[in-house]
Amino acid sequence: MLSKSFSVQDKLARVHFIIDKEPHITVDKAKCLECESKPCLPACPAENYNYNEEARELTYNHEGCLECGTCRFICPMDAITWSYPRGGFGVAYKWG
Ligand code: SF4
Ligand code: SF4
Q1: pLDDT given for residue 27 in this prediction
Q2: Tell me: domain 23-92, CATH 3.40.190.10, correct?
Q3: Which of 29, 47, 51, 85 has the most crowded CB, counting CB atoms within 10 A?
Q4: Cα 24 to averaged position of ligand 2 atoms, centre (Å)
Q5: How far apart are the CA of 85 and the centre of ligand 1, in A?
Q6: d(CA 76, CA 6)
């Protein structure tokens, strides 16, 4: 029997988000100015973190969060405040 494999992008296409307007992630951006390695950028599987070199500003998107919790553990500056979204909100897996 043939087994079907899925790429990460295929799997991400199968999740659904129930958006909470109240962010469950906040970042103390002042600390990002002192953060040389910025490990949140490659670590987030949903690519929710970006850094604008010209503006020297971190941007992030709580709405596409997969709730893996990686960013809050990997941040060396303890700049990220993270909690699960409120009940009824957030990511739903195995959608579609
Ligand atoms: S790892 Fe933390 S301090 Fe560094 S850029 Fe990301 S959020 Fe900012
Ligand atoms: S919890 Fe995971 S998916 Fe959500 S922003 Fe952090 S690293 Fe990205």
Answers
A1: 98
A2: no
A3: 85
A4: 11
A5: 20
A6: 32
Nearest residue (by CA) to ligand 2, atom 2, is: 68
**DSSP secondary structure, 31-55, as one string:** HHTT-SS-THHHH-TT--EEEETTT
What are the 10-residue block averages of pLDDT along the chain, 96 residues in total?
Answer: 63 84 96 97 96 96 94 98 94 75
Domain boundaries, the chain: 23-92
Of the candidates 38, 23, 46, 41, the residue with the CA atom closest to the CA atom of residue 77: 38
What pLDDT does residue 85 have? 94
Q: Is 68 in the pocket of ligand 2 (CB under 6 A)?
A: yes
Q: Say which DSSP state 19 is in.
A: -
